[in-house]
Design a protein that fits this description.
The chain is mainly alpha-helical. It has 2 domains: about 15-140, Cytochrome c-like domain (Cytochrome Bc1 Complex, Chain D, domain 2), CATH 1.10.760; about 145-240, Cytochrome c-like domain (Cytochrome Bc1 Complex, Chain D, domain 2). The protein is built from 11 helices and 4 strands, in the order αααββααααββαααα. The protein has helices at about 15-30, 35-40, 45-55, 75-85, 90-100, 115-130, 150-155, 180-190, 195-205, 220-225, 230-240, and strands at about 60, 65, 165, 170. The strands form 2 sheets. It has a two-stranded antiparallel ribbon. Strands 3-4 form a two-stranded antiparallel ribbon. A hairpin with a 4-residue loop joins strand 1 (about 60) and strand 2. The longest helix has 15 residues, at about 15-30. The chain is elongated, with a radius of gyration of 18 Å.
Length: about 240
């Protein structure tokens, strides 16, 4: 959705706050940190769904299928710590702290997810970051994989974090507004059907860049993450409600 492309607001490298938190992980583990208790009753299926919806447009997390580049790559951030023997619960605890207190210089707002949702997201990241492989069972169909209609897909794919779309109560400012997308399509690619312009923008977001925005910010993997049916449903929804 980024011809329709998104503003590059920060580096994908870990922020100072996250780097410091990761550096503290080993110390927390040695001190017998209570971080693990926060994930004890977590719903990781909800955590994955919330992560993909709220966080995936900014972060890479391979098992969640997200490829955002605005924020740190969570596999690279936590993988080495896991390799050094740091446990799932401790990583979840650090993640929950970062959700609540992302740092003054971070584009991520504090409490992007809150309460039980924050606990669940942290538990899922603790379970998934840096592990490789695929989610199984209920996790395999959590979030985007289980979305069927256009509005569900828009929400589950995390589009609201970057784009304005009134019908979805989306107020993102990293990418261009999707209001009036049909008219935008006609101006940017005259002679191209709006349906093709929008679907191509989802699958290949850097093909045409909206004025004032940069290439390489919108996730490039929606062609892999969305089925053809989901791409069509999302396209039809955007054209119907965007106007």
């Amino acid at each position: 959705m980024s011809r329709i492309a998104t503003r590059n607001t920060s580096s994908a490298r870990p922020s100072g706050a996250l780097a410091a938190a990761i550096a503290a992980v080993a110390a927390l583990a040695l001190l017998g940190s209570a971080c693990g208790s926060r994930a004890g009753t977590a719903d990781v299926v909800n955590g994955k769904a919330q992560f993909v919806q709220k966080c995936g447009s900014c972060h890479i997390l391979d098992r969640a299928g997200t490829a955002g580049k605005t924020g740190p790559n969570l596999d690279e951030a936590f993988g080495p710590a896991r390799g050094d023997g740091i446990g799932t619960g401790t990583i979840a605890g650090v993640t929950q702290d970062q959700i609540a207190y992302p740092g003054n210089d971070s584009p991520m707002p504090a409490d992007l997810v809150a309460g039980d949702d924050a606990r669940d997201v942290a538990a899922y990241v603790g379970r998934a970051a840096g592990t490789g492989g695929d989610d199984l069972g209920a996790l395999a169909t959590a979030g985007l994989a289980g979305a069927t209609d256009g509005k569900q897909i828009f929400t589950a794919a995390g589009c609201a974090g970057c784009h304005v779309l009134a019908d979805a109560q989306a107020n993102g400012n990293i990418g261009p507004t999707l209001q009036g997308i049909a008219g935008t399509a006609a101006k940017r690619q005259a002679g191209t059907p709006p349906e093709k312009y929008v679907s191509d923008s989802i699958i290949n977001p850097d093909a045409v860049i909206a004025p004032g925005f940069s290439a390489g910010v919108m996730p490039q993997n929606y062609g892999d993450q969305l089925t053809p049916e989901q791409t069509k449903a999302l396209t039809d929804y955007l054209l119907r409600v965007g106007g």
